Amino acid sequence: MSEVLLEAKQLHTYYGSSHILHGVDFHINKGEALGLMGRNGMGKTTLIRSMMGLVKPRHGEVKVRGDAMTGAPTHRIARQGIAYVPEGRGIFPNLSVKENLLMAARPGVDGQRNWTFERVLETFPRLGERLTNGGGQLSGGEQQMLTIGRALMTNPDLMILDEATEGLAPLIAREIWRIVREIGKSGIATVIVDKNHAAVTSITHRSVILVKGQVVFDGDSEVLRNNQALIQQHLGV
Amino acid sequence: MDFYSFLIQSLNALQYGLLLFLVASGLTLVFGIMGIINLAHGSFYMIGAYLAFALTSLTGNFFVAILLGIPLALAFGAALEALLFAHLYKRDHLEQVLLTYGLILIFEEVRSLLLGDDVHGIPVPEIFAASIPLNDTLSYPVYRLVISAVCIVLAVGLYWLIQRTRLGMMIRAGSHDRDMVQSLGIDINRIYRTVFALGVALAALAGMLAAPISSVFPGMGSQVLIISFVIVVIGGIGSVWGALIAALIIGFADTFGKVLLPDFAGLIVYLVMAVVLLWRPEGILKKG
Predict the structure, then answer these.
(1) What is the pTM of this model?
(2) Which residues of A touch B286 (CB under 8 A)?
């Protein structure tokens, strides 16, 4: 029986008067790799922010490891082993690369310390060369590596990556995909939000598609990959 | 001005500047990190001085008064943050100014009720009461040197805390992106409370240290508040090191202004501010 790490039930979220999420059901299991897709403005980031406690949903429930935590303080939700790498990366430019990593360090929920400063640098050797640089002096790809590395320093059981390859050169994006796959193999569950549906469906077990704040597909990534009509309808440009 | 007079004035300027830094550092941190304009910050200096006076009268020992006063100031700061300031972060500056101006009135009234409106003095503690003779007629009080030394130790400690500790990293990160800090599992509200309490304690300690040399009087907080805002603006909002440089500039400008241009003494500080802002509109050091 797989354990549900994070779950949303009939979530309705508003920004001001605009109704963004229309009763979304969502869950991710321990160790699972999940793709969250949909065109711009369909509510992917809002769903994540609602589950992280960064926006308060108006109706519905968020459960973390089975406990109701709807609208709980974000740091408490994160402390349940959930690492969030937001779109736009969220680097602290006024901290050095080393400080960006060290400030986040903590053991995981079960006390695991699999991800140390040294292991993060082994995974991202480029960061090791730039430890004393300010976070703002890094290239886009390096910044993305830094936010992923920083999220790993919290020894999470679930990592949520919002548009991790956005705006990166193809070669660098490929490197990021390789790392994301490696993270998944290490047993960390991943929620991957990305426009590259071919890449997402090839590295995830399950895919969820949002259209106008509603789930229109929730199923096997392989099934979705082989259903070009569905992809065209909901994700095509 | 002969050499010894110059030396004395320089030491006075240094001591005054460093003391102002203790007050201004908390003001600039709270302003830069939490975005709060705290008009009541000068009151913490006043409260510190009156605490030193009251506790010295009670215990008969200035050092015991300081040792008791620091934890009291920290607790007071933490309580004030939890009860009032925590509700101000998402509000605009007008509401912040209204609340903190109201606090000045409340603090002054409570001070008046508890300790009256008289001017008080605290004797310089005996072991620092001596003066170091410089020449036949001039000497320099040891206690002022002690104040400077304590302030330098605290400035170094503050540097270490902000630049070298994880708490300092979190404080700096929190000034940049509050949501991201929380997403990393860090309780930003606790960080804010710590910073606020620290700022209150530093200002109160400045008041305690100053009490034996400047006397303890109603309204002493507002004098310090205005000059501290000048320092925060000159130094660059949110920059602790900018505040240190600015506090020393103001210390020297004010002290030597009073000696060399006594007719314009009250103006010098603001002239310095105008010149610095013409040269660097965002202050000497930008936030960082």
Answers:
(1) 0.90
(2) none
